[in-house]
Design goal:
alpha+beta, mini-chromosome maintenance (MCM) complex, domain 2, 3-stranded antiparallel sheet, 7 strands, NusG_2_sf, NusG domain II-containing protein
C-alpha cells in the first residue's frame, strides 16, 4: 500500500463522517417542524410549534370519537380520549420529526413533520 492509498483512505473516512454529520443535522433538525393531525386519512389541522401555544389544549371531536390534544414545548400528546384502550393517551409526548401517535378506534393520527416552505398553518395562537 502506497502513501497515496493511505491518504485516499483517510480522505474517504473523513468525508464519510462529515456526510453523516450533515445528514443527521438535516434529518433531525427541530427548527422547522409542525404537528399534522389527520382523521380517517385526511389532514384536519396543522399546528406550528410556538412559545405562545405551550399548554394549549385542542379538542378534536369527529364522527369517530373524541380526543384532547395538548401542545407542549416542542412536543405534543393526547391527554384525553373516548376510545376503550387509550393507547394514544398512554404513549405520552412525541417531539421528533417522524414520530406519530395513533388512535385506531377514532381513526386519528398525530404526526410531527418537517415544515415545508408552502405549508399553511391552522393554529399559531389558540
Amino acid at each position: 500500500m502506497t502513501k497515496g492509498d493511505k491518504l485516499l483512505i483517510v480522505f474517504v473516512i473523513i468525508l464519510s463522517f462529515l456526510s453523516m454529520g450533515y445528514i443527521n443535522k438535516q434529518a433531525f433538525s427541530n427548527d422547522s417542524k409542525y404537528v399534522s393531525v389527520q382523521v380517517n386519512g385526511k389532514e384536519v389541522k396543522k399546528i406550528i410549534f410556538d412559545k405562545k401555544i405551550i399548554g394549549t389544549t385542542i379538542p378534536l371531536k369527529t364522527e369517530y370519537g373524541y380526543n384532547l390534544i395538548e401542545i407542549g414545548d416542542e412536543k405534543v400528546r393526547v391527554i384525553e380520549a373516548d376510545c376503550p384502550d387509550k393507547i394514544d393517551v398512554k404513549q405520552g409526548y412525541i417531539s421528533r420529526i417522524g414520530e406519530t401517535i395513533v388512535c385506531l378506534p377514532n381513526k386519528m393520527v398525530i404526526e410531527i413533520k418537517g415544515l415545508e416552505e408552502d405549508t399553511e398553518i391552522d393554529i399559531m395562537n389558540h
